[in-house]
């Protein structure tokens, strides 16, 4: 036999062993340096990204503070002027020019007042260029007049008329209800000049006697916030946008508008529905983690968007007038990665060069070392082939020279050892042959013992079957036997009576009359049919039991054929009827049948009946064991039940489930329930082969499955699955 230590496929050449470790060390060192360089670059990128984001955030914050403070400041100045009587809200011409002048002085889209009387006036710049004046009366329709103006702020002509009611508009009702300066709900509209989206700052106005006159408001066009964001340096590569707390867009640094047109109506755009993938991904990430309401301070994280990593910073933006927005700044990582990627390429080139140089040097060095080792290898292979007379030359390397001397000494010792080994081999072969013979004999003895145990199990099942049949046949036979004597007496009496009637008819004599009275002819005529009917029931019972025996054993039919599986189950139940019915110490065990629409099944009917018998007997034993611990009334209150269910699975398999509500089987025993010789029953009551044989019949003989599902204290269910059409040649 060839020694496995000499197998060529399980060893590496020494040249590779010498060269590869050096290459790995060099590659590892260079890689570590490159990795540390890359990580330091990444850290620098993170720091730089944070600085860019912080600078952008500060710029946007300062602009928002400056831009959004104008409407509130202007409202306060105008409200103070009205309160001191400087501005007269009833002088429409003067007030209109005053607002017209302020529209020229400030970057606003609307300045106006709404009075409690329903009247109002305002100056607007809806298209961003032309200033118009809106003047309205208290009640619609067409109570608003929109005037064009000249360079002096004078009204020139009426451009449009439309309906308006102060009490129906949020920009009027919200400040009136709040009682303090506020930012109202963002306004959207679709004017002839284009879509309009604005934030409205408003507050109450009072006269000199502190009587409420109404409210004053200033609007800023939110698209101008988007223009500002687009002009930021970061907008060339990153993204900046503003959100409301519900995820609605306010302004973005992209080309996308924060609204859409639906049936010519302006509809606010949710950030999660944005066409910009960066905005969409960031908003959905915030929605996923429900961060909108919980962000109270600067929050940053990183996201993978379209295969690229982005740095994201979210900060809440508030003012004292009720604005509560979210400012989001995103920067892609690849903006800062160009130099790091170049350094990485340089590192890879240096690593490759070092590997090439180390490989060349390693090849030359290994060749000088390997040559004497190859001589040792050739001598070793010759010895492995049987030529033990081998010697090797001395090497110029001290360590290899010592190895050569050791090899030559070993070769001499090995020759002597092989001689002794040949003798030991012959002795060992004799002992192995002797031991093999003993094992064969033991195996044959084990097989004979197994066959005897299986036969014993079969005889045990047969004994139960015979006991059941004898018990069931005994009652109807005794019944018939007990009534035959009476039938014979009744028949004899009737015969005597008939003879007397024939002799004395048509006038019966007194003797006949006395005989009729003595034999109670009326009772005889009534009871005789009943007895004959009872005898018929008894004979039918005998025929039914015999038929059940035949269905169970299938001795009068072919071993493999199509059968009605329900007949086999019913036959088994008939045989076990004596164990199921009520006894003095316990009520009847109920059998609940839930038979499905099952076609004929091709199987070994007798063997499947044996499986049903084993499972049902175990179920009855379990129920009797459980009932042994209860009183008769307790058993009656919680009846013992065996449930049998049949069905077809996937149109190709028959499934039979037999469940009981007995003591159940622990998980430890469930794993061994199908092992040969394993039983939980007392000694003498079971051999432990019943379920093992049943498992073999179902799985090996029929190619099916047998499973045991049980919970200790609640019951056990056995599930049998066999194919409806069995290919006999394919079954093991």
Write a structural description:
This protein is α+β, with helices and mostly antiparallel strands and 732 residues long. Among the domains are: 59-333, PAS domain (Beta-Lactamase, 2-Layer Sandwich), CATH 3.30.450; 560-730, Histidine kinase-like ATPase, C-terminal domain (Heat Shock Protein 90, 2-Layer Sandwich), CATH 3.30.565.10. Helix content is 51%, strand content 20%. It has 15 helices and 23 strands. The chain has helices at 14-83, 92-105, 170-178, 223-230, 277-288, 338-384, 398-504, 510-519, 521-553, 565-575, 577-580, 605-627, 632-637, 667-670, 690-701; strands spanning 110-115, 120-124, 132-136, 144-149, 155-162, 182-183, 187-191, 194-206, 212-221, 239-244, 249-252, 259-262, 265-268, 299-305, 308-318, 324-332, 561-563, 590-594, 601-603, 641-649, 653-660, 705-711, 715-723. The strands form 5 sheets. Strands 1, 2, 3, 4, 5, 6, 7, 8 and 9 form a 9-stranded antiparallel β-sheet that branches. The radius of gyration is 53 Å and the shape is flat. The two termini are 37 Å apart. Residues 1-9 and 554-558 have low confidence and may be disordered.
